[in-house]
Amino acid sequence: MKAALLAQDGSVLFEARRPTGREHGPDAVVAAILDFAADLADEGRARFGVAPAAAGVAVPGTIDEKNGIAVFSANLGWRDLPMRKLLGERLATPGGPAMPVALGHDVRSGGLAEGRLGAGRGVGRFLFIALGTGIAGAIGIDGRIEAGAHGYGGEIGHVVVRPGGPRCGCGARGCLETLASASAVSRAWAVASGDPDADAASCAAAVDAGDDRARTVWQEAVDALADGIVLAQSLLDPSTVIVGGGLAEAGDTLFTPLRTAVTERLTFQMPPKVVPAMLKDTAASLGAGLLAWDLLSMEVTA
């Protein structure tokens, strides 16, 4: 877990990290989140003499932002968790009302932070893609994130780019994340190299070293990702595509062939800028803080 105290202008006042403790079960994860938030609030009081004005929390899985409910998370093992209520009550001053709490999706929150504080700052329309264990995305429009009618906006990882391809955890075949995520590259490189412990980082290193097997694995992932980006370009027409997550740590090894592959596939579409994310793995926690400040702004407006 990553957490931060965030000023209204987005500047980071304090940061901390802790393990989720998910090996102890979903109830332990919830307790760890609440404890972490309470300790962070105490840190704010100790450092600045005032309690935080609001809290934001970004979680993976399916969420109901309107009602503050973490609906489902396969990784963390919870269903229909009233996160806003639990956190608001835990952070309330003794005898006072619950603290205002904003709940967000981890990748969309990361996209929000990239849009306001990172690589998308000043960009009217962008697509944020996180390449990690899976692939997720966020659609940025004028400083906000478009979640869609049902909260699934930006799920580029489940765009089918290879019909009939590998089975995805969602039930479909040939989804982008089965081909271009860090997990997919790790699996393909483990087979190609004959090393069951091989991963995406070692594949990137082998590409840089000139290994033809690694280059084949890498290019297949790049081609799939480029197909997904071109599909998104046709539908959304973003001016910038921001790529983050663990696989983006490969730097030019990823971005040079990816930019080429995207450009080669475009016909009438205007080419987007394809750039690396700036905020790395702190993006989601910073986005959660921005959601909290947005929540306070809405309350003032109302």
SSE topology sketch:
Blueprint lengths: L1 E5 L5 E6 L8 H23 L6 E5 L2 E3 L4 E5 L4 E4 L1 H8 L10 E5 H12 L7 E7 L3 E7 L2 E3 L30 H4 L1 H12 L6 H9 L3 H25 L3 E5 L7 H14 L7 E4 L6 H19 L1
Parallel strand pairs: 3-7, 8-11, 11-12
Antiparallel strand pairs: 1-2, 4-5, 5-6, 8-9, 9-10
Helix pairs in contact: 1-2, 3-9, 5-6, 5-7, 6-7, 7-8
Descriptors for this entry?
single chain; 302 residues; alpha/beta; Nucleotidyltransferase, domain 5; five-stranded mixed β-sheet; three-stranded antiparallel β-sheet
The tally of beta strands, per DSSP, is: 12
What would the CATH topology of the largest domain be?
Nucleotidyltransferase, domain 5
**What is the fourth-level CATH superfamily of the largest domain?**
ATPase, nucleotide binding domain
* Broad shape: globular
Strand line-up in the sheet with most strands? 10-9-8-11-12
Write a concise synopsis of the structure shown.
The chain is α/β, with parallel strands linked by helices.
Explain how this protein is built.
The protein is an alpha/beta fold. The protein folds into two domains: 2-108 and 282-301, ATPase, nucleotide binding domain (Nucleotidyltransferase, domain 5), CATH 3.30.420; 122-277, ATPase, nucleotide binding domain (Nucleotidyltransferase, domain 5). The chain is 42% helix and 20% strand. The protein has nine helices and twelve strands. It has helices at 26-48, 83-90, 106-117, 177-180, 182-193, 200-208, 212-236, 252-265, 283-301; strands spanning 2-6, 12-17, 55-59, 62-64, 69-73, 78-81, 101-105, 125-131, 135-141, 144-146, 240-244, 273-276. It has a five-stranded mixed β-sheet with strand order 10-9-8-11-12, sandwiched between helices. α3 (106-117) crosses α9, α5 packs antiparallel against α7 (212-236) and α6 packs across α7 (212-236). The protein starts with a strand and ends with a helix.
